[in-house]
Amino acid sequence: MQFFFEVLIGGLLSGVMYSLVALGFVLIYKASGVFNFAQGSMVFFAALTFVGLLEKGLGFWLALPATLAVMIVLGLVIERIVLRPLINQPQITLFMATIGLSFFIEGLAQLMWGANVRGLELGIQDEPLQWVSDVAGVNVSKFDLVAAGIAAVLVSTLAIFFSRTRIGRALRAVADDHQAALAVGIPLQQIWGIVWAVAGAVALVAGLLWGARNGVQFALTFVALKALPVLILGGFESIPGAVVGGLIVGASEKLAEVYVGPYVGGGIEGWFPYVLALLFLLVRPEGLFGEKIIRRI
Amino acid sequence: MSAALTTATAIAGDVSTAVMDLSVNNIEVIYDHVILVLKGVSLQVAQGRIVALLGANGAGKTTTLKAISNLLHAERGEVTKGAIEFRGQRVDRLTPNELVRMGVCQVMEGRHCFPHLTVEENLLTGAFTRKISRGDLKAALERVYHYFPRLKDRRTSLAGYTSGGEQQMTAVGRALMAHPSMILLDEPSMGLAPQIVAEIFEIVRSLNESEHVSFLLAEQNTMVALRIADYGYILENGRVVMDGVADDLAKNEDVKEFYLGLSTAGRKSFKDVKHYRRRKRWLA
Hints:
The complex is a heterodimer. Chain A is mainly alpha-helical. Helix content of chain A is about 75%, strand content about 0%. Chain A has a single domain (about 1-115, about 130-285), classed as ABC transporter involved in vitamin B12 uptake, BtuC, CATH 1.10.3470. Chain A has helices at about 1-30, 40-55, 60-85, 90-115, 130-135, 140-165, 165-175, 180-185, 190-215, 225-235, 240-265, 270-285. In chain A, helix 3 crosses helix 9. The longest helix of chain A has about 30 residues, at about 1-30. Chain B is about 45% helix and about 25% strand. In chain B, helix 4 packs parallel to helix 7 (about 165-175). Chain B is globular. Chain B has helices at about 1-15, 60-70, 95-100, 120-125, 135-145, 150-155, 165-175, 195-210, 220-230, 245-250, 255-260, 270-284; strands at about 20-30, 35-45, 50-55, 75-85, 90, 105, 180-185, 215-220, 230-235, 240-245. Chain B is built from twelve helices and ten strands. Chain B has two domains: about 1-115 and about 180-250, Rossmann fold; about 255-285, no CATH class. The interface of A and B includes residues 169, 170, 173 and 180 of A.
């Protein structure tokens, strides 16, 4: 039983890391209806820029705001020169644009900082918490716990921002109905700029945590693919959905690997979430927390 | 009624001298660079008046309103000729945001509430352009609830789940939150029961009387609109074909024939009306 809980907790905590990436997708999808394929590249770009700045000799606390500024500017620039000219185009056009964008960002990151794999040290050890193992006999990684804490803070900040503030409400209004938002005087471009900037900032947080865990390398961009089942489970428009979806994916893939894996020769972890998402699509296509399509009859 | 009549004759007399909130001069609108929708529309709305913009489907009512509120751009439309002035200032190059700040707000056809926001949140988005304190925001909400008591009961429901009438009220209330001096109201009666329509028009009238908000009201429901309006314009195929004081228009034989199928000779079939209309235009 202890082993089960250890796997479960480990899975849940790693799920939080998926949620962080999914969050970036949700933000942009919610406000502009664009599925931003480049989110993974933005995560990679953020991590690489941060490490690059550290190598240049900047201290941790200098590099962090500097990278944040870079990510915000990147978000604003993307909105300004890629998405704004494509306004009123079909969704598929915007999606294709973000695919192109993802290649561009990956290339730009490597052009600026080189393609070497680098380590990233955040000063948090990936070791079991001693007192938890003593009391409950379960090993819980300190790093995972801190990551989960950061994610929790980020999510609650965003949730409050969306539900309580003037800009947050405007963001949701824009997500619902562009035309009507325009008619009441909400400047769409300004709102989209804000969303992309926030998505850039979220990419930075995800990039740092994933970079610290797996090393800063090109493979970071594939983390975004793991966010897909999270989004399908949780719903594309929901911040709580991204969190819950991440937890489900994290926990289920680890449990499946440990308990089902041996019977089929292992390696389940890689594809189990996708199968789960596929099954889920059949039952509840809008996801657990996705906005129900309100239809008047 | 007699009071309404005297004000009506008053505007009829001094259209040229009254203070104009809005004046649209001979605008032409083209969609997608090829489709000519408005072929020279001119109209004026005097301060604190209700002006009705009437006409059948596709006459250009919505396009006229969108040209004024600058929402055309989002639909690849463009004002290619003419000028639009609000209180003596050219507004045709402003963004909708700037226009709302100036006090012109549009309530779009088909309500367009934000379905996943509650009624109250919908109203609050209307105040986006006003950076005001919490207290003032609360007061603005109360003002809307004063006119639409029904919205107060439904404040926490998602707007998408409210009835058509409540959505229309939410849409008007949302515009009101911007504290506009002029509301462009597009087809408020669409898809609503006559009783609800009457209720909404009554509120429009009282808003106009007690808050001096001017309205430019696009409607297909000619008679209902003319009952509350001071002045009316009739559009056909992107042109103003007739205009006049509302009461005169309501009594006008041609209007009765064109829009109600009524004439001195009793009801006519629509086929004949159409033919008649075409011939009349030809002769004119």
